[in-house]
Amino acid sequence: MRAVIAEDSLLLRIGVVKVLEAADFEMCAQVADAEGLLAAVEEHRPDIAVVDVRMPPGFTDEGVRAALVIRRQYPRTAVLLLSQYVEERYAADLLAANTSGVGYLLKQRVADVEEFAEAVRRVAAGGTALDPQVVAQLLVRRHSDPLDRLTPREREVLELMAGGRSNSGIAAELVVSESAVAKHINSIFTKLDLPKADADHRRVLAVLRFLGVATA
Which residues form the Response regulatory domain (predicted)? Predict the structure, then answer.
């Protein structure tokens, strides 16, 4: 199998290359930033790209954004993200784009040579490899999501709120009374842990929660 690696730490990059070469991977390219990664994938069309989450110039989410581009433009190239810490949002972003040929591991896993090489092989073959710590945090976040507390009818009401409908508009759409809509909305506020405040303000906050927009 053919691979490229994008990692700004020279020592770690050398280590990963040696591990993969020992596992019979052909290393097509070694780069230190997202721009170089995308160019390497365009040129070599590898089976897998092993990508650091944070790379130059900003050291934020350059690797994740490049990985999403790869999955969209080069679907035959699998992607394995490496991260120093558990950042479940990035794993969720990658999995939301495609659930095959993806992986997210902590960099400490590279030290277990056989396990790491097997994870790379699995992802390159179209499978998935998620670090146990990432899985645990994704499950915690999923189970603690207040949106999961809503009933199907409450989710319908919230979706219509997100579409800009008034209470009367929601009532007409769902063929219920406005008082019923008001009760659903009050229940939504309670389940989303939105304290009593200006009604319009809580309405906006509920919609932002529904859309997945973080609020302070």
Answer: 2-122
